[in-house]
Amino acid sequence: MAAPSKSSEAMIFYDIAMRPPIASTCCSPNPWKSRMALNFKNVAYSTTWVPFPDVAQVRRALDMDACRKFGDGTNFYTLPILIDSDTNSKIGDSFDIAVYLQTKYPNSGSGNLFPPQKLDFVFDQGVPLLIPLSDQKESGYGEYSQFNTSVDEAFSNHVGLMAHNFPFDPVNMEASRAEFIRRAGLKSWDDFDIQGEKREKLKESLRLMLGDLGKLFLRDTSGPFLLGEQASYADLIVGGWLRMMRVTLPENEWEEVRGWHGGIFGRLYDGLEKYAEVK
C-alpha cells in the first residue's frame, strides 16, 4: 500500500444516520461507495451523520444542488457529500467523489481507483425507476461511469426485497417511513413487506442478475476482485450495494446471496472489509 495522503485538514464526509449503533447499521449504497473510496485512498476524513428526515435540509444548507430528480421532475436531495477545505471543494455525488479523490491523490493508499478494465455488464431494467439515477458528468472514466449506472439500475430494481427492513432510528422512524411511502407512491408501510410467491420471484430475479454480473468476476480468479488481487472502484460500486443487502435483507437471505454463484459475492464482501472502516 502506498503512503497515506497528506492533507492540512481532514475532509468532511456526510452520510445518512440509521439507528444506533450507526457504524453497524449505515446501509445507503452510494455513501458506502464513497466511504470505501476514501479508505482506499487512505485520506484523512471525519463523518458527519445526518438523520434521514434532515437530508434535504442539510444539502440545501450546504448550497448543494440535487444530483437526482424524482420521476415527476422535482428535486431529490440525498447524500453523500464530501467537503475538502484544502481546495474549497464540495462534491455531492458518489462517482464524482471517487474521481475527485483519484485526481487529487493519484498514488495514495491502495493506488489507482480506475485501472483500465472491460466492464461490459448491461442490465435491462424493463420498467423505469421511481427515482432516476444521477446524470454522470464526463470524467475520463466512461467505462466505470456506465458500469456504475448499470449496477445501480440492477440493484435498484430489487430494492423491494430490502426496503421494509431499513433500520430507521426510532427517534425519527415515523417521519422516515412517511418519506419512503411518499417516494414510492404507496399507501402504508406494510405495502413494502413483500412476502410469499412475489418475494421468491424477486429473489430469483436477483439471483439471475447477480449471475450475469458475476461472470465479470470469473475473468481473473486469483482474488476476490474484478482484477483478481487488485481492487478498483468497480468493486466498490458493487460493494456498496452488498453493504446495503447485508443490513436490510433477513439474515438467512443474506447468507443465500453470499453463497450464490460459487460464493463470488461473499468473497467480494469479505475482500472489501479492509476498506469498510467507519470513521
UniProtKB/TrEMBL annotation:
<dbReference type="InterPro" id="IPR036249">
    <property type="entry name" value="Thioredoxin-like_sf"/>
</dbReference>
<dbReference type="InterPro" id="IPR054416">
    <property type="entry name" value="GST_UstS-like_C"/>
</dbReference>
<dbReference type="InterPro" id="IPR036282">
    <property type="entry name" value="Glutathione-S-Trfase_C_sf"/>
</dbReference>
<dbReference type="InterPro" id="IPR004045">
    <property type="entry name" value="Glutathione_S-Trfase_N"/>
</dbReference>
<dbReference type="Pfam" id="PF13409">
    <property type="entry name" value="GST_N_2"/>
</dbReference>
<dbReference type="Pfam" id="PF22041">
    <property type="entry name" value="GST_C_7"/>
</dbReference>
<protein>
    <recommendedName>
        <fullName>GST N-terminal domain-containing protein</fullName>
    </recommendedName>
</protein>
<feature type="domain" description="GST N-terminal">
    <location>
        <begin position="18"/>
        <end position="109"/>
    </location>
</feature>
